[in-house]
Inverse folding.
């Protein structure tokens, strides 16, 4: 809603010639590419004219309206038509039963929306809620305990497709360990954020961490993936790390194999 | 403005195919670009906004065979760049601000001296279905608190205020088009 109001205000400022050049250019570019936005601007033009006619503009807006908005014959014509329309509407008699009284009048403004997107969003919210209730026990089991101190393991990326025993980092998880933080050593890679997928040796997905950020640990750039110790039973694992570019695309950064020798 | 170059059917088809592979979508995109250009030139105070919009489209179409293979970016961005250049050329040629005409309608007064649009408007309003006419009347009714008035109106109809604004805007746009058409025909029945 706030975004909507800001956009409306922005359009009004544009129409009254009160935007700085950068914002004006951004708005103009959008005019050429977004038909919904184009309609909003046309709608705002009518509103500005009506506000002018009813004396609802501030003194400064009034001045901008007359010196900026009204400089084209097309807008002067619009002012004339809307002014005449207002005058004629005032002469019309009231027809009370012409407008229906909808049952939706008892609903708050938001729920009266005819927007397909909003309906879809509400349906989606219900589905997510049901899903959340169904999967709550499963999620609880997988939830990472962020309070207890984790076992930290630093992993380097594999240089070969097939990983031999010699290159594999070995991890032994002591009793009582709740969380393992797998720190993935980065090279020159520099992405906005990272996605790490933990796979078993057979390729089954066990855990995923998204929107992870790189940080510096002991002079090395790392990405940390915190996983519940309970899911790391004995066996071979690998983490596929992907970097997210500013455009939102995921690019593969590396493959980090390791072996859990005891848990 | 465009010299001796003229927009041919083939060149226009080429332009549409650049905008979108699907002809219907390309047509809609073209319309948005054109209306957006008109709005942009109008917003920058150009009296001949439509001519400038068409000239922009002509220039882009003329340049298209050269740039199509190498240009990277959205067609709209390219149109916008050309439109800005054209605007600066136009500004050099003409005064930016067109002086306001003396017969600008004052806010409160009656402009019945300009009879034709007034008569046309009257006839166009009469052609509206009763519910639309009543909607407009209530929406624009003079009141101390227009926002509250519109809130009540939206509630009565069971729609949001935003939907109400759009609905009224579309009725007014149809009225404007009706008046334009009627004025063009000199007020005879349209």
């Amino acid at each position: 809603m706030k975004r909507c109001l800001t956009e409306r205000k922005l359009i009004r400022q544009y129409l009254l010639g009160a935007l700085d050049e950068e914002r004006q250019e951004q708005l103009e570019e959008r005019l050429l590419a977004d038909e919904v936005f184009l309609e909003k601007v046309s709608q705002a033009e009518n509103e500005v004219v009506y506000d002018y006619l009813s004396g609802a503009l501030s003194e400064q807006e009034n001045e901008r309206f007359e010196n900026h908005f009204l400089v084209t014959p097309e807008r002067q014509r619009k002012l004339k038509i809307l002014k005449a329309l207002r005058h004629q509407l005032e002469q019309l008699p009231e027809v009370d039963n012409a407008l229906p009284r909808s049952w939706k009048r008892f609903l708050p403004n938001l729920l009266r929306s005819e927007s397909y997107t909003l309906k879809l969003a509400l349906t989606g919210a219900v589905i997510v809620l049901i899903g959340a209730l169904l999967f709550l026990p499963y999620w609880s089991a997988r939830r990472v305990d962020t309070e207890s101190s984790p076992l930290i393991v630093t992993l380097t990326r594999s240089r070969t497709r097939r990983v031999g025993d010699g290159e594999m980092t070995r991890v032994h998880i002591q009793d009582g360990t709740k969380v393992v933080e797998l720190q993935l050593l980065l090279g020159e890679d520099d992405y906005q954020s990272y996605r790490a997928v933990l796979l078993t040796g057979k390729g089954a997905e066990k855990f995923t961490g998204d929107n992870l950020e790189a940080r510096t640990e002991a002079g090395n750039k790392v990405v940390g993936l915190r996983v519940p110790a309970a899911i790391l039973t004995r066996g071979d694992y690998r983490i596929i790390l992907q970097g997210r570019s500013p455009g939102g695309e995921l690019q593969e950064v590396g493959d980090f194999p390791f072996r859990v020798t005891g848990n | 403005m465009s010299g001796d170059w003229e927009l041919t059917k083939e060149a226009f088809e080429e332009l549409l195919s650049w905008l979108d592979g699907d002809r219907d979508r390309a047509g809609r995109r073209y319309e948005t670009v054109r209306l957006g250009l008109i709005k942009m030139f109008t917003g920058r105070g150009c009296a001949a906004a439509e001519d400038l919009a068409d000239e922009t489209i002509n220039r882009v179409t003329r340049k298209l065979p050269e740039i199509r293979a190498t240009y990277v970016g959205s067609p709209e961005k390219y149109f916008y760049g050309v439109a800005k250049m054209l605007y600066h050329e136009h500004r050099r040629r003409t005064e930016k601000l067109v002086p306001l005409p003396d017969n600008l309608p004052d806010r409160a007064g009656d402009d019945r001296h300009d009879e034709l649009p007034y008569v046309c408007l009257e006839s166009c309003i009469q052609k509206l279905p009763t519910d639309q006419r009543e909607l407009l009347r209530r929406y624009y009714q003079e009141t101390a608190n227009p926002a509250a008035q519109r809130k009540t109106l939206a509630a009565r109809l069971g729609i949001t205020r935003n939907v109400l604004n759009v609905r009224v805007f579309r009725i007014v746009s149809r009225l404007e088009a009706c008046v334009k058409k009627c004025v063009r025909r000199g007020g005879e029945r349209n």
About this structure: Chain B touches chain A through 69 residues (CB under 8 Å). The first helix of chain B runs from residue 9 to 19. The mean pLDDT of chain B is 84.
